[in-house]
Structure formats: C-alpha cells, structure tokens
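Narrative of activities, Objective 1.

The group set out to show that a structural description can be obtained from nothing but a protein's sequence at a throughput compatible with the screening campaign. Below is one input-output pair from the validation batch, recorded exactly as produced.
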Amino acid sequence: MNEKLRELNVEFLFSAVLQLQTMEECYDFFEDLCTVPELKAMAQRIHVAKMLSEKKVYSDIVAETGASTATISRVKRSLDYGSDGYKVVFERMDSEKKG
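Output recorded for this entry:
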C-alpha cells in the first residue's frame, strides 16, 4: 500500500467498510459517507477498470460509462502500475459468480 495513504483515519475507514455484510448496508453506509457525485465517480472508475481489464477500447468505454479519456487514462495507469487492488476484487467477483 502507498505509505502516503497509511494513516489512522484511512485504516478506520477501511475497518468500517469491512464490517458491511449486505448490499443494503453498503448503500446505506456509502450514502451517509459520500456525496452523490463522489459515489458516482467511484462507481464510474470501477466500471472503467472492469472494462479495461476486459480489454475494451477507449471509445467503447467512453460511450458506455461517460468517463473522460483523462479518467480512463488514470484508471489504466492504476491497473498497469498500481497495487493490483482492482485485480483482486475482480478475480473474487468472478469466482463468486462461478461458485
């Protein structure tokens, strides 16, 4: 993990997220925690990441998500050079679908 992120408040946030057990709890928690634009921005980035991981092209991603090419490029950089957080989540989601 990026050492710049490692602090008490971030760990408290992550511990809180790990307590959520249902989709409804997630909706309630994130509605309380985030503004609507913040939540939509995070949802858009993970959608972009999923499409990039499926080797979709930028034009298709823009058309489906409405994301800017700058956002797509930032997400692509995270996928290529980040901490593999997206990869872990997508692998677990895929295995859950199959399982």
